[in-house]
Amino acid sequence: DITRNKTVTATLKDGVFQANLTGLAYNTSYHVRAYAVNGKGVGYSAYIIIKTGSSAKVTIVNMAAGNSSPSTLDVSATVSADGGAEITERGFVYSSKGTPSVEE
């Protein structure tokens, strides 16, 4: 019964039908399959499982440093966009040489 599940109407172009599924939860698996209805009933494709994720990384702005002493420095920054996912860690990475990174 297709009325118990969420559906989206597809557009048809050159024999292929397409749709955009919106409002999905981040980091969630969805079972998706195509369907078509005619006068004799409903036909279905095999289903696939798709997991949503973030398409963008976190955006950080307003990086600033101040109040320095011979061996300390105060630093601050602002997250302006979370990339579609909950921020699970915040911090600063530093090095005396090169561009520091938390990624290996």
Automatic annotation (TrEMBL):
<dbReference type="InterPro" id="IPR013783">
    <property type="entry name" value="Ig-like_fold"/>
</dbReference>
<dbReference type="InterPro" id="IPR036116">
    <property type="entry name" value="FN3_sf"/>
</dbReference>
<protein>
    <recommendedName>
        <fullName>Fibronectin type-III domain-containing protein</fullName>
    </recommendedName>
</protein>
